[in-house]
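Record format v2
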Amino acid sequence: MLKTSDEKYLRAIYSVSHSENKQKVSLSDLAYYLDLKPPTVLERLHVLQKEKFISYTKTEGVVLTKSGEKEALNVIRKHRVWETFLHKVCKFGWNEVHEMAEQLQNVNSEKLIDRIYTLSGEPKFDPHGDPIPDKSGKLPVSVRRPLLNSIEGCRCLVLGVNEDSAEFLNYLTDLNIGLNEKLSVEKVFGYDGSLKIKYKNSESVILSPKVAEKILVTCTKHGCACK
Amino acid sequence: MLKTSDEKYLRAIYSVSHSENKQKVSLSDLAYYLDLKPPTVLERLHVLQKEKFISYTKTEGVVLTKSGEKEALNVIRKHRVWETFLHKVCKFGWNEVHEMAEQLQNVNSEKLIDRIYTLSGEPKFDPHGDPIPDKSGKLPVSVRRPLLNSIEGCRCLVLGVNEDSAEFLNYLTDLNIGLNEKLSVEKVFGYDGSLKIKYKNSESVILSPKVAEKILVTCTKHGCACK
DNA sequence: TTATTTTTTTAGGTATGCCTAATTTTAGTA
DNA sequence: TACTAAAATTAGGCATACCTAAAAAAATAA
């Protein structure tokens, strides 16, 4: 059986390796993310490596093995299922749930996760818009659609773009919109179909239909009415 | 803030001190209950004493202070609320819930306990028939009634007796029925009002109306139909 | 009342999970 | 290329929460 503390590390490695602009998970990145000192993390990495959950070299950084990734996705599942439950069933605000879920995810009962997931309506995304892996660790396959076809109040996740020109990509970079960015559609202007988008929990911008058409997203709210 | 591990000890002390025939909580009793060795427990008792949660002398054994009892009842509340939730909302069997509740009770959010208690219908007793203390640590005031007035399927708790003769008390002792015993009424014989009672999860006995009249109980199922 | 057993206490010891300080290695820059 | 800054590593330490073995104290029985 996996220790609570191993799970913490595996989840962190997964998160860091999937964050933007990271092609390598360095020791110091990981230590920073975990709010621990590098020697502490290093020591644990050696253990995780012996247990075959990761491989680590100072040049390649930390890489999850197949079994390490599976475990990581399992913790992520537990965490996100709890967050969903706290939000949907217990009616906590989406901003309150993280800390509680952090503790709840350590409770060790697959059956309990199943039950509370059922009680929550089995959505594919948690209250923050992050996808919930299934029991085997698979992430939900998302239906991609242009951001343009959004209705007001829609919350969605950026999965890709429809154009690769440097101009377009630079524009998005300037706006600070990247892959896996979570967007909230504040307003749809009927006149030309422009969209007011809020993201990073504060930034907000109006996108022209030409741009919105090129951004591919997937809705993250269960049963969203977007086409 | 109280540590998880302190809570474990305080709950154990409370439980042992309230178990049958215990007028003193000895170090070895406590160690046995916690499944730890006496030196380990002793060490912690010194700490708890310094924190003013208990007083301990080898002659008096362990005694909770006011504040220690309050903390103990708080953990007990958390534990029993979780058990209730797991049983009523998550539909686990009453025999499955203890272990999960043991872990869940460590999650530190009074607000969460409130929410799941509400979701569970705010009963006064947990699925094992044990009373759930309120936030201030008060145990529910029970309506005492003679066991005789029970309907089939009733589950109740022995609160006392109506007769103090040695004969009667010895009879109960022989049957292994004591204070706080949880009884389940298996059958009511209409002919003379005898009751078939099951308890200690296996023992079962038929009590005459004369005896059943003298045993005072309180129903532990929410909204039980007993008079 | 002494002998025996049980309970309590003391005195070390171990594993875990974190730390700081100092050193080595690597990478970036002048 | 040599210098400097950053990252990785080593070495040693600390607190927690357990343990065993042995001594001291108390309770029980002969």
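Residues 145-219 of chain B form a domain with the SH3 type barrels. fold (CATH 2.30.30.90).
Chain B has a mean pLDDT of 91.
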